[in-house]
Amino acid sequence: MKFKANKTLVASMVFAALSSASTIAYSADTIDVIVKLKNEQMPFSVSANRSLNAQSMSTQRLHQMQGENRKRAVQSFVSNKKITPKHIYNNVYHGFSATVTQEQFEALQNDSQVEGVYKDEIYTIFDPGLYQSNKKKHKIKDLKTTKKKRKLIDWPQVVPQGPIDSGAASSAYRGADQHVYVLDTGVDVRQKDIKDNLGLGYAPEFCNWPSNKKLCPMPFSDDNGHGTHVSGTVAAGDNAINALGMAPEAIVHPVKVCTYAGSCPGSSILAGLNWAVFDMLGRGEPAVANLSLGGPTSLDPGDCTDTGYVGDNFVAESYCNAAHQGMVVVVAAGNSSDDAAGYSPAGFNSTITVSSYTTYDDSTGEAVFTNFSNYGDGPNTWGDKKSGAITIAAPGDTIVSLNRTHANLLLSGTSMASPAVAGAAALVMEKHPQSLDFSAFQNVRQMLVDNAITPAFYSTEPDNDGNPLNFPHEEGILSLRFLDE
């Protein structure tokens, strides 16, 4: 079922947004933290749960029951400690975020029920404005209506490179009844090419101008533009205007975890992922999440195994827990011309991590990767942990997708490549329905990897000064032609 923006949806979104704070405290006397509580009897993986709970319970109800148990446990803890949480995490994590005093911080560190206390980190969207191709000199203003024109004019539909190169544009599969959660800067509900494909959304971060109902009609309205462009790549409609998405009949859930400036607090990302899993479990079917954001990290990502997470990285653990409940998480590799293994969440082996290429020549087998894309070991060099960290490549060079309010916009970045694979995952799940457990992620990832095109040889486009580059890329090129064979 598709949900259009209406009074009921507005009311539900205002309630969802007001139920959690969205600001970061900067007082010298307080600290923004994410707290992990000890959790031995309420695991996230199905196999671990089955060993502790009723064998006859459905997987959906098992996940929901444990989520409810974790929520009650966290609520009891913060009530006893007289802490006001910003967010309670019960579906991908067992804990909460809060702004605490130094005294509370030290008390939490010494509490026997607490496994860890972490300072809230700020991530960012992978800013596409800095990564325009040095080969294609498109002017962004050419795709906008000029300021002199008051009427918002939509453009005739353009089929972007992703649907063309992958074969999605001609596929019989369109993403029907598939749900994709876009954790980003929000979505502009006024954009005609996406509004009919919008489902329920959530706003850990408010739209920046809540009193302006034109700019911020919903709490999750896009006040940056990045999220609308990403959402369009996933599921812009096949309706003769603007752009065509990879899965034009999929339902997009806007989850606003980033500010208008592109800053994304870790506590808000975790809240968004937590809500996405909660919403997915309510339907009882696996879903896809896209995160075109992240940042560098020096922490070991640990290992997401068949029975759960092993390691000490609480961020990586949350993504693993999401995967164990049926969420197929797709993330951007990053735009720093660096090894993606050193980035969060790109380096996690519970995510499908996407690099960016500019061209693939089917006649010669040559793939040219963008000069900004992060790189890393591809699937053919993965070890037992199946983490390289790169899974697959998709188009990310001057990609046409939706502009805020109307028309199209050209942007470059792995932020543009990742949603192409998120849309592809929705198409795979449309043909091959999955279970509400870790196998959904494993199966979808393996099908994408097994059917990717292996370039005969590859190169990296020169840097913006014309200097040659030779970054290592072992990953294949996204292809969906197997769906219709």
UniProtKB/TrEMBL annotation:
Signal peptide as annotated in the record: 1-27
Protein family according to the UniProt entry: Belongs to the peptidase S8 family.
Keyword Cell membrane: no
Cross-referenced InterPro entries: Peptidase_S8/S53_dom, Peptidase_S8/S53_dom_sf, Peptidase_S8_His-AS, Peptidase_S8_Ser-AS, Peptidase_S8_subtilisin-like, Peptidase_S8_subtilisin-rel, S8pro/Inhibitor_I9, S8pro/Inhibitor_I9_sf
A biological process from GO: proteolysis
Keywords associated with the record: Hydrolase, Protease, Serine protease, Signal
Residues annotated as domain Inhibitor I9: 33-125
One of the record's GO molecular function terms: serine-type endopeptidase activity
Domain of life: Bacteria
Residue stretches making up the Peptidase S8/S53 domain: 178-464
Protein name per UniProt: S8 family serine peptidase
Active site per the UniProt annotation: 184 (charge relay system), 226 (charge relay system), 415 (charge relay system)
Species in which this protein is naturally found: Aliikangiella coralliicola
